Amino acid sequence: SQTIHQWPATLVQPVGSPLSLECTVEGTSNPNLYWYRQAAGRGLQLLFYSVGIGQISSEVPQNLSASRPQDRQFILSSKKLLLSDSGFYLCAWSASPGNTGELFFGEGSRLTVL
Amino acid sequence: SQQGEEDPQALSIQEGENATMNCSYKTSINNLQWYRQNSGRGLVHLILIRSNEREKHSGRLRVTLDTSKKSSSLLITASRAADTASYFCATGGGGFKTIFGAGTRLFVKA
Q1: HEC assignment per residue over A15-64
Q2: What pLDDT band is residue A52 in, cutting at 50, 70 and 90?
Q3: Min CA distance, A58 vs chain B (Å)?
């Protein structure tokens, strides 16, 4: 069966520090991978998605970046965090090709920027 | 911009009652999905309904879709305290760019 791992679960970082959130998927090949951000009490904002190694599409201009160095690994990074980067970050995957659109989510990473 | 908008934003009911949540969207869709999120956790897929379907059931869940009104509803029958969570509708063309609404927070009192 497929599983998705996301870490760290919780992170407190000072403004201006770098960020690296990692996500890995097991049990499937060539998944579509996604990073979403959720502000407190709000819906999900799509940040990045990837259909293959090295292929990244950005949905929202910001100081965040994403990389996909391996088929089942998706990394969210920042060189210098802003206060507004605080939030709950969720990694997700969907099947490819012939996907139904169903997304499978990790347990999330809560980032607090102070 | 958000595609799905849930209504109500929050709902509080007694255990055993039915809970109904609504979702409206703006553009044409291939499918509409409902997800559940327990506090501080990831989202879990509940049910997907395709644009050519009008109603779908899964256990205590019943989803309807009216493409002419661009709306969907999620009904949870005989609610339980464990159903307390946030519920999101999501629309898209499948896979890429699935757009989520702001969610309905359901609280079921035991």
Answers
A1: CCCCEEEEEEEECCCCCEEEEEEECCCCCEEEEEEEEECCEEEECCCCCE
A2: very high
A3: 11
